[in-house]
Amino acid sequence: MSITRVPALVAAWIVISATSSSATPQLSRYRAFEFGMSVATVAQHAGISPEPRIVYQRPEVIEELMWLPGRVGTPADQGDSAQKVLFTFYDNQLSRVVVSYDRSRTEGLTAEDLVEAISASYGVATVATVGMPSVGPGPHVDDKILARWEDPEYSITLFRSKYLSTFGLVLLSKRLDALSVLASAEATLLDERQAPAREMARLQNRTDEDRVREETLRRANKAAFKP
């Protein structure tokens, strides 16, 4: 091979590699949101208040933040296909995104229509079997998986709700979501083990409050009593 051709071949390889890299589907993102983002950052991008609902506080903090795109108020938002988006955070890191689509914005669309639209952002679906039963990421076990986009780190699942007849999308970081599921299970066990002690403490506090209230009423009525 001529030495003069080597730089040209290297340059061509760099261009091809860069083009291929830029064309790689970004399964780690949903719109402007990226897995691992903090609650404050997600809220800033969504234009909402960073006040998440605390699901569990131990052994790790699990939080949820709701975004209603159609209520932000701009004309673009009013035409958003997403009715609501639920963000889940594990230890202040975005681990899961659940998108519920507005029925009026998807009325008449087929599963193939949505797969085609989503594939424009995430590439060809790794699983595209309409009507396959849900095996996990959907909100309900009876939901139907329509397609899935997946790599070793991230998973995106398109599903249709059996009860609401609406489409939804579940995006997750496999690592963070697995940690979140484990932490939630451990939190449930802790709650179950400590429930009797908490109930006893609640009853004790109630008894003390009742005693104080009864004594206050006794003194007031005793002072005012007229035979």
Q: What is this structure, in a nutshell?
A:
This protein has 227 residues and is of the alpha+beta class. The chain is built from 6 helices and 10 strands; from the N terminus they run H-E-E-H-E-E-H-E-E-H-H-E-E-E-E-H.
Identify the notable features of this structure and list them briefly:
alpha+beta; 43% helix; disordered N terminus
Topology record:
Blueprint: H1 5-22, E1 29-30, E2 33-34, H2 39-46, E3 53-56, E4 62-67, H3 75-78, E5 82-90, E6 93-101, H4 103-106, H5 111-122, E7 132-133, E8 144-150, E9 154-160, E10 167-173, H6 174-224
Antiparallel strand pairs: 1-2, 3-4, 4-5, 5-6, 6-10, 7-8, 8-9, 9-10
Count the domains.
Answer: 1
Distance between the termini: 121 Å
Based on secondary structure, the structural category is alpha+beta
Give the proportion of residues in helices. 40-55%
Molecular structure report:
This protein has six helices and ten strands. The chain is an alpha+beta fold and 227 residues long. It has one domain (5-181). The strands form two sheets. It has an eight-stranded antiparallel sheet with strand order 3-4-5-6-10-9-8-7. The longest helix has 51 residues, at 174-224. The protein is elongated and about 90 Å long. Residues 1-23 and 133-137 have low confidence and may be disordered.
